[in-house]
């Protein structure tokens, strides 16, 4: 059975800190790994990773995939209160469904 | 450009009733997927439709059904509602059946009482 595990499940940091969120997976026929940010309702797409070792970057957020060790990390530098959200990791494998982890709840305090 | 739109945004139903949720994908997207998200969990896959055909189904009972229309919009139907069906129902659209980014709508918050 495919498995996606995110850690930590929750995190509280101060504004300006750097955070690293982890996502490990065990799936058959891996195709891609996606990161989403969820505030209240709609998950907002952040990154899709398919190749190992290639960092994707958007502003203060970056992510990298390690297909050998079966994990990905999402880094957020110089955190702001607006970064407070649940960060979801999802893996697309041989089927048609995104298989999500439980998410990491991030709270950035002023 | 409009994103993925879902309706209604909130809904309260009584046990045993049925419900229909609607989703319009991003223009040009032919694939629509439905997910159920309960509090504290990641979204769980229910269905995927592509070009009006069911391409995948998650581990949900037959009370759940869906369809996709010629304009690629979709409906999710749930019959004989149970208290445990209370959740956020999310619709995601993507350009192709797989291998491309999926973009989510705001969701429908269903409460069954």
Which terms summarize this structure?
heterodimer, A: 110 residues, mainly beta, five-stranded antiparallel sheet, globular, B: 113 residues
Briefly summarize what is shown.
The complex is a heterodimer of chains A (110) and B (113). Chain A has 110 residues and is an all-beta fold.
Topology of helices and strands:
The complex is a heterodimer of chains A (110) and B (113).
Chain A: E1 3-7, E2 10-14, E3 19-26, E4 32-38, E5 43-49, E6 56-58, E7 61-66, E8 71-76, E9 85-92, E10 98-100, E11 104-109
Parallel strand pairs in A: 2-11
Antiparallel strand pairs in A: 1-3, 3-8, 4-5, 4-9, 6-7, 7-8, 9-10, 9-11
Chain B: E1 5-7, E2 10-13, E3 19-24, E4 31-37, E5 44-50, E6 53-57, E7 64-68, E8 74-78, E9 87-94, E10 103-104, E11 108-112
Parallel strand pairs in B: 2-11
Antiparallel strand pairs in B: 1-3, 3-8, 4-5, 4-9, 5-6, 7-8, 9-10, 9-11
């Amino acid at each position: 059975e495919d498995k996606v595990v995110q850690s930590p499940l929750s995190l509280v940091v101060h504004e300006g800190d750097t955070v690293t969120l982890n996502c490990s997976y065990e799936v058959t026929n891996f195709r891609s790994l996606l990161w989403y940010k969820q505030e209240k309702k709609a998950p907002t797409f952040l990154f899709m990773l398919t190749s190992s070792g290639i960092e994707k970057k958007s502003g203060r957020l970056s992510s990298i995939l390690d297909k050998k060790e079966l994990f990905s990390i999402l880094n957020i530098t110089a955190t702001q209160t607006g970064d407070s959200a649940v960060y979801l990791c999802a893996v697309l494998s041989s089927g048609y469904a995104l298989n999500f982890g439980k998410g990491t709840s991030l709270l950035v305090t002023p | 450009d409009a994103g993925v739109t879902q309706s209604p945004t909130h809904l309260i139903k009584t046990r045993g009733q049925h419900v229909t949720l609607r989703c319009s994908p991003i223009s040009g997207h032919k694939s629509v997927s439905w997910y159920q998200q309960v509090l504290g969990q990641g979204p769980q896959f229910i269905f995927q439709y592509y070009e009006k055909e069911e391409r995948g189904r998650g581990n949900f009972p037959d009370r759940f059904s869906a369809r996709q229309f010629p304009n690629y919009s979709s409906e999710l139907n749930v019959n004989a509602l149970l208290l445990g069906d209370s959740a956020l129902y999310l619709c995601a659209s993507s350009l192709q059946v797989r291998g491309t980014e999926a973009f989510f709508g705001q969701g429908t918050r269903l409460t069954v009482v």
